[in-house]
Amino acid sequence: MSNKNSVTGKEVQTLFNRIAPVYDQMNNWLSFGQHRIWKLMAVKWSSPRPEDRAIDLCCGSGDLTQMLARQVPQGRVYGVDFSQSLLALASQRASAYSNISWVEADVLDLPFEANYFDCATMGYGLRNVRDIPRCLGELYRILKPGATAAILDFHRPRAPVMEAFQRWYLDNIVVPTAQSFGLTEEYAYIMESLEKFPTGKEQVKLALETGFKLATHYPIALGMMGVLVISKEIVF
């Protein structure tokens, strides 16, 4: 199995710039509002503390970033994405938060020093990166020893009936809904990316190979979503 996405980074960046104007509305409709619950779970599993320096990678329109910011009221959160359009939307939506900084950057080459962050989140981003091991390596580099990251994304269910339902849902609900916004190509990409995305067990293996001391994948939403929770070893 290859962990490198056949779609180029520039193509993905262009895709998300096009999606930006309806990104939140689509997420709400297509998940029946449940994406907020899943993101809150990811925030909780990242173990944020009030004075932490935190980072939300592939932050999109910033809803997960805001959730994280509420957990570190005396700290600071960096919302990172390579889509200018989504970052502009995120900044506008989070204008009331003084503890968020927005950074345009590629998760494969983050502009932060090593051992800088106390915790990290990523929502629906790992599946879209060109090189998953390199992304995990960058995440490992910027986290402090003992820090935890929680990565939320789609997951391929193990149960055949749920796998069939997931495919049906994407083909018959997601893509037609996207078509009504003129975004058929953009959302049809989800199935292609999911088919190449490592399973939960494979994600755990990749994280451990990267150097993370602890790695657990939690299937949620009947196995159609999952959260990878990874922690960096404490150095004494």
TrEMBL record:
One of its GO terms (biological process) is phylloquinone biosynthetic process. InterPro entries: MenG, SAM-dependent_MTases_sf, UbiE/COQ5_MeTrFase, UbiE/COQ5_MeTrFase_CS. PANTHER family: 2-METHOXY-6-POLYPRENYL-1,4-BENZOQUINOL METHYLASE, MITOCHONDRIAL (PTHR43591:SF24), METHYLTRANSFERASE (PTHR43591). It comes from Gomphosphaeria aponina SAG 52.96 = DSM 107014. Pathway: Cofactor biosynthesis; phylloquinone biosynthesis. It catalyses: demethylphylloquinol + S-adenosyl-L-methionine = phylloquinol + S-adenosyl-L-homocysteine + H(+). Belongs to the class I-like SAM-binding methyltransferase superfamily. MenG/UbiE family. SUPFAM superfamilies: S-adenosyl-L-methionine-dependent methyltransferases. The keyword S-adenosyl-L-methionine applies. GO terms for molecular function: 2-phytyl-1,4-naphthoquinone methyltransferase activity. Keywords: Methyltransferase, S-adenosyl-L-methionine, Transferase. Gene3D superfamilies: Vaccinia Virus protein VP39. This is 2-phytyl-1,4-naphtoquinone methyltransferase. Methyltransferase required for the conversion of 2-phytyl-1,4-beta-naphthoquinol to phylloquinol. Its EC number is 2.1.1.329. The gene is ubiE.
